[in-house]
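Hi R.,

Here's the chain you asked about this morning:
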Amino acid sequence: MEILTEIGHEVNEKNFGRIISCVESFGTKYNPSQSDLKVANLKITRTAMRIKLNSLYAVLKPWVNAVNERVVLFVSLEKLIKRVVTVIEQCDTPEETVLDLKATTSILAGICQILNMELIPTDPTQVNDKSILRIADLQVHYNNCIANFEKLIALLSGEARYKTIDTDLTVSALTSFLSGMKEKNESVMKTYLIVESAVKERDDLFYHNHIKSGAALAVNVRRYVKNVFGGNSPQYKQIYQYKYTILS
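And the predicted structure, written out as tokens:
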């Protein structure tokens, strides 16, 4: 029989179901005294696991949309900054002001490099925990990006010599762009709080909830089967192949 080697929360939930099917097939020989290990209660836990996964996918959808919308907007910022610098250099702007403006645009360009903006899968079942944490860790850089872009606009607003025929580079247009940045960023932060809560609820049930977590139950079921049937028994070998990996 093929040994399952997949990893992931989905695989853990499916393998938990396979463990239940195994012990159920053992009939009355599987009769643990611990109530949590009884087939009926294992099935209740498995149903709760499925619900937690589906609940997470449901709240991931708006977060994924918000993240990708923010990326689409922010990815154009680097080119926009370069064009602003070109306009600054063409204007009869005092050297000190030029230095201040270029310093700010240089900071913005550096932040854009850190963000390394990429779209994430629109299917929430394909969004892994590492991606969620990576994007959450980037939040401070998105905030800094907005703060420095706002500083740049303030500097340009105070410089009467800043003139351009490009309508998207005017102070008014840049201010509108800033508003869009704030809106998209705020949307990501709000939806992330809901995702973060759903992830915690999933992890508590799957891994952290002491003796009643899926991980603990899987271990205890295997231990019981080993004690009753023996470590070399067909029953134990059957159930042992279904791994439950601690992922969080």
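The chain has one domain: 9-240.

Let me know if you need anything else.
M.
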